[in-house]
Amino acid sequence: MTTQPITQEILTVENVNISFKKSKTQSVLAVKDLSFQIRQDETVALVGESGCGKSVTALTLMQLVEKNSSIIEGNILFEGENLNKLTEKEMQAVRGNKISMIFQEPMTSLNPVHKIGKQISEVLVLHGFATKADSKDKAIEILKKVGIPRADSIINEYPHQLSGGMRQRVMIAIAMACNPKLLIADEPTTALDVTIQAQILELMKTLQQQFNTAILLITHDLGVVSEMADRVIVMYYGQIVEQAPVRTLLKNPKHPYTIGLLNSVPDINSDSDEPLSPIEGNVPNIGEIKEGCPFRLRCKQVHAKCHTENPALFQLDQQFVRCWLYEKREVGA
């Protein structure tokens, strides 16, 4: 976990709703009433099963959601500037420069027909961090920073010639090339073995300390959350169901969904022979839940009110929980 001092907010997401058009007159709500902040030097983990809205949130922050097929409401403030109000040309000056993203699968994110050096150099030249004349040398320097051996040779190779771990390091090199203030990492260690995963996480922490970068880490791996995050946001069915400092959430989860996620993870330090308790069922398809709490269909503590009303986020000291179980325990209630 980062030990850098936490300072001012660099990203503020306010009441964001993301809908996708089904037709000219119909749309489905994929992300609902999303609000959170990320402070400078902080790592915030966005957690949940596939289909909970994590990646859609990341793509929306980068303004990479197709405008013709979506409706985005609310404010996304980066250093006080509303990204939702920027033109595509204005956003290009931000994307890859002030805000960068590491995508889930580097093999589909890297251009297969361009050499590694060219892909890094393009970013540097585009944002004014290098000229064409010195971009090659700077690309080699960046590859060395992310721990890639033979950097002067690697720049002349294609993505398919590298291992999965090496491709992920190249993705991090491209993302960090312009010293961004915010790094969005979408499942950065998926499909990597545990040794390479540990190296990638350590690399991200080192680069964060070196460049004072804030990180939004999107993952379903609670081990990664424990290792990397300062705060955790748990999403289910497109909305935040719990938010808390990482130690608080891991030691004392409140929402039944968060408890279910933690109970699904084996603990190698436990002497208990109790079997794991995975959450039954699946995340509903977007648009499927019309009323009530979306988690009620899988919840072991469901009661009558859950079927008719979706709860607000209730504040319990440092935790925020979207569950009727905590309605009367809210701070100040």
Describe the model:
The structure is a single chain. The protein has 333 residues and is α/β, with parallel strands linked by helices. Helices cover 29% and strands 23% of the residues. It is built from 11 helices and 12 strands. It has helices spanning 54-61, 88-94, 106-109, 116-126, 135-145, 151-154, 164-176, 194-211, 222-228, 246-251, 256-263, and strands at residues 9-21, 27-39, 43-47, 70-78, 81-82, 99-102, 182-186, 214-219, 231-236, 239-245, 314-316, 319-321. Mean pLDDT is 90; it is low at 1-6.
Topology:
Blueprint: E1 9-21, E2 27-39, E3 43-47, H1 54-61, E4 70-78, E5 81-82, H2 88-94, E6 99-102, H3 106-109, H4 116-126, H5 135-145, H6 151-154, H7 164-176, E7 182-186, H8 194-211, E8 214-219, H9 222-228, E9 231-236, E10 239-245, H10 246-251, H11 256-263, E11 314-316, E12 319-321
Parallel strand pairs: 3-8, 3-9, 6-7, 7-8
Antiparallel strand pairs: 1-2, 1-4, 4-5, 9-10, 10-12, 11-12
